[in-house]
Structure formats: structure tokens, C-alpha cells
Amino acid sequence: MRSQKISVIIPTLAEKKRVTSVKRCVQSVRKSSTSDIKIIAVVNGNRFDKELCSWLKSQKDITFNYVAKPSLPNAILKGREMVKTPFFSIIDDDDEFLPNAMDTRLTLIEDNAQVDLVVCNGYVNRGQIDKLAFNNLEDVEKDPLKNLLESNWLASCGALFRSDSFTPVFFTDYHTFAEWTWIAFKIAMEKKNIAILDEPTFRINDTPESLSKSLEYKAAYFDLFLRMLEKKPPHEIIKKIKMKMCSAYHAKSVSQLKAGKYRDAVILHFKSIFLPGGLRYLTYSRKFLTPWRFWNQSQ
Length: 299
Hints:
Layout (H helix, E strand, L loop, with lengths): L5 E7 L6 H13 L6 E7 L5 H9 L3 E6 L4 H10 L5 E4 L5 E2 L3 H10 L6 E10 L2 E4 L11 H7 L8 E4 L16 H11 L4 E12 L9 H16 L4 H24 L3 H12 L17 H8 L1
Parallel strand pairs: 1-2, 1-4, 2-3, 6-9
Antiparallel strand pairs: 4-8, 5-9, 6-7, 6-8
Helix pairs in contact: 7-8, 8-9
InterPro entries: Glyco_trans_2-like, Nucleotide-diphossugar_trans
Organism: Desulfobacter postgatei 2ac9
Keywords: Transferase
């Protein structure tokens, strides 16, 4: 057998409802290269289906690992600790690599010894319709940090990492939820050398129950922005982060007001208007000029 060059980490809860998607994901990894790929399945949490775990364990090309902690970024870390190949990739259990995706990525990174990772485009599938995940991906190479503050350019299954450039230590200070925005931020701050492959190599299957739609996921951005500021990015990036915080505080204020939580809403509103870009929300203050709302809440 030829020496394997790529490992693919699949973090999964291995729930019964995901049996079909997990097997589809595994098959897509196999079809993504003409060479053998080392598949590392990291089952995490206690919601796993025993039959699915047995199937994963029975596959000759899959290395199985179980961690009790139910955490996607921690499962990624545990998977990275098991990587012994020169390169690795990561994929969520409900997503897919397109045929020959790994071969295409591998050619690009092997041809460029200074490249730390390849960042790729792909499809997001909603309602059985594929749409390109990223527009203007080629701009990322010029200024990854600035482009990240416009929109995240790193999909969970959208990169091939050079193992020497991304040791397990890189993944230890993970962020729960919004983990790929945090990873992309760290990549940009550490000035990793990025090669862009602006062609589809993956498919993200977006569903109503996708984690990115959860309240916990959206709330994670408040702490994420604070962590970004702690890293002391350039001044113009600090301003952009604070503008993002401003919009997030305003959006949260609106949702709290709709939920009848008026005091929380007004606190969030005042946080928003004192950040860069906050003056555009000043007229929203009139929503809080009805005293009986606050009086009723205190009863």
C-alpha cells in the first residue's frame, strides 16, 4: 500500500438520525481521491447510535475514537492529535466532498512548499438546490483579515491543512460555536500562507436543524468578538470588529424587545449606540419611551 498523504477528520455525534448522512459523508471521502485516505471518526457525547458506531469501527479505512465530552471543536482537536499524515482535512458528518476534491487540493499544496493551507470554494445545498458558497474568494489571499470581517471564507470542509503548519496546539484554544470564524481569524492573525482554489470541492447540506441556526450559535458571536479584540489586531480591524459588535447588540436588543424583556433590550441598545456605527440606531431609542413597559416588567 502506498503511504497515505491525507487524513480526514469526521467529528460526529453518531446519532441514529444521522446514519444515512454519516455513511454518505464517508463514501464522499473515499471518492475524493484516487489514493487511500486515512479517515478518523471522532464520536463525541452520549447520544451515539451503537449500530452506527459498530459500522464505523468495522470499516478498514476508518480509525475510530470516542470522547465523552459533547463538543465539536474538542472532537476536532482529538482528531488532529491522531493525524500522522503530511496533510489533513475536516468535514462535518452531514456534508460531502465532491469527486477528486482531495486530489485537486493536494496537487496545489504539494506544488507550493510555502503554502500552509488550501482554502476552497464549494456548494451550499438548500432545498435540493446547489449554490456557490463564496463569492470573490480570490480576494482572501490579498487580505484574509479584512475579508473575514466582511464574511467568513473558511467552510468546515473547505480546507486542506499542512500538518506541520497546524499542530494540535493550534486547535487547543477553540471557541465553542462559530468555531470556523475563530479558526479563520487565527489563521489570518498568524499570517499563514493561504492558497485559494476557487472551484467547488465540497457540498454543505444546509438543514433546518443545522447548528448555525441555533440561538447558542448566534449568541457565541458576542464572546467571539471580545476574543478577537484580545488578540490586538490592527486598528482598522478593531474598528470593523466593534462595528460588528454594534450590529449584534442591536439585533439582540430587537429580539429581547419582541420577547418582552425591556430592560435587557434597553441595555443592549445603549451598548450598540456607543460603538462605531451606533448612531444609525439612535432613532430606535423611541421604542423605549413608554414608561409603563418597564413598570410592568418590574411587577
